[in-house]
Design goal:
The protein is an alpha/beta fold. The protein is built from 13 helices and 17 strands. The strands form 5 sheets. A 6-stranded mixed β-sheet has the order 4-1-5-9-6-10.
Length: 434
């Protein structure tokens, strides 16, 4: 989350949310915390309307699962999409380069930012990673972001705020490159479960007249039920709470995934969240994991892998076989027929091409080359790809192999027997576990 901004009489900045608000206690064992967060997600899913949690690809939808109307625009609008990624992190060393499903946190943020640019943000919008670390700068460029310069050292200290660094970036782009931003869209890399629909919905509400917007998620435990310890005795922190949780006033927390605000308001009010003026964009709790420590990476990866669709029915069907090389050579998007994507090569090259060319493909499966050994590393890589591409994972075998099929079946993976990886342009296989 964002570091707390200095107190302001007219506004407050995004502050660091205590993990205890979601885990039920900051001193709990990591295993208990993971269990509680996942159970919380299940409870939230059961309480919420089904369409909020239905499966969604990177195609553009609102946070409520509805097709998103075209993003609005403002005359002369020039939004700056900022990904703040400082190199120094005391809580989790090298945090912004840590991975979730094989992609760095910076890579996830850049990928969503590029999707937003391609799906309705103004033509003059710009995606910039603001960092002081050359390694993060190189990673950002690999994923297609602009890193025009490194952040000044005085804006990269432990006590530096995202407000100060963002305004410093805005000023530097104006002075050194003559590019004057009119608004800021802040995408923190510590929110890898953010979706492009969240970004575009925030932007749409901003262009509809909101002074600022930000993503929020429902509070699982009402703060009114908090206790404090005084001289070894418990007392209610905010007075006697309601007897039933249902009677408590519904509250939300900022998720930290997206903030949109005009540059003039950011300067004048010194905050990304403007009390009484910011408009919320509600997202489910399972997309609100904020990376502060190693256990958060485990939670995020577990939740991210839930994006891959389960096995479908309907018996054997024809699927178009598309390789990574085919994607790289194409310019026009693929038609909407079922596609089996055989993946090889680097993810920073593959995923942007897949996002662009598979946008209209609603039935997707992903596999690895048939000569890939059946081992834990390969299985985990395939599961990661399935989550990233929101596709059904399928394992290709070069020939019938009962032992390998048994191993894959234990992981719930369908298998596809093919003689070679280039022998055909269409394959038939049942979309059901072996």
């Amino acid at each position: 989350m964002l570091a707390p901004s200095p107190p302001s009489p007219v506004g407050v900045g995004p502050g660091r949310r205590h993990k205890a608000s979601r885990s039920g206690g900051g001193d709990r064992a990591p295993g208990e915390r993971l269990r509680d967060v996942l159970h919380s997600c299940v409870r939230e899913q059961r309480r919420s309307e089904p369409h909020v949690h239905e499966h969604r690809r990177a195609r553009v939808v609102t946070a409520h699962g509805e097709p998103l109307a075209p993003a609005g625009d403002l005359p002369g609008s020039r939004p700056l999409l900022v990904i703040p990624a400082r190199g120094g992190s005391r809580g989790l060393v090298g945090k912004n380069l840590r991975t979730v499903c094989g992609v760095s946190l910076v890579g996830h943020a850049v990928r969503v930012g590029r999707q937003a640019l391609a799906n309705g943000l103004p033509a003059d919008a710009r995606l910039v990673v603001d960092t002081d670390d050359p390694a993060i700068a190189d990673e950002a460029r690999r994923w297609g972001a602009d890193v025009p310069f490194l952040r000044d050292a005085d804006l990269a200290r432990d006590d530096s705020t995202s407000l100060a660094s963002t305004l410093g970036l805005v000023d530097r782009l104006d002075v050194e490159q003559g590019w004057a931003a009119t608004s800021v869209v802040l995408l923190q890399p510590t929110s890898p479960l953010r979706e492009v629909g969240d970004v575009l919905e925030c932007w749409r509400r901003f262009t509809d007249g909101a002074a600022a917007t930000t993503t929020v998620f429902p509070a699982e435990h009402p703060p009114g039920k908090a206790l404090r310890v005084v001289d070894g005795r418990l007392s209610w922190r905010y007075g006697l709470p309601p007897a039933r949780r249902q009677d408590a006033t519904p509250l939300v927390f900022e998720s930290g995934a997206v903030y949109v605000v005009g540059v003039e308001d950011l300067r004048a009010r010194g905050a990304f969240v403007l009390p009484g003026a910011s408009v919320p964009v509600h997202v489910p709790v399972e997309r609100s994991t904020d990376i502060d420590g190693p256990i958060d990476l485990t939670i995020a990866e577990t939740l991210y892998r839930r994006r891959a669709p389960g096995p479908g029915g309907g018996g054997a069907r024809a699927w178009a076989l598309v390789t990574s090389e085919d994607l790289a050579a194409r310019e026009a998007p693929l038609p909407g027929e079922p596609v089996l994507l055989e993946v090889s090569g680097a993810l920073p090259d593959l995923l942007p091409a897949a996002d662009r060319l598979l946008a209209g493909v609603t039935e997707r499966a992903v596999t690895l080359p048939p000569d890939r050994p059946v081992d834990r590393e390969g299985i985990e890589h395939l599961l990661d790809l399935a989550a990233l591409l929101e596709a059904q994972p399928v394992w290709s075998l070069p020939a019938k192999d009962g032992c390998s099929r048994q191993v894959l079946s234990s992981h719930g993976l369908p298998t596809l027997v093919r003689r070679t990886s280039r022998s055909c342009k269409q394959v038939h296989f049942p979309m059901e576990a072996s």
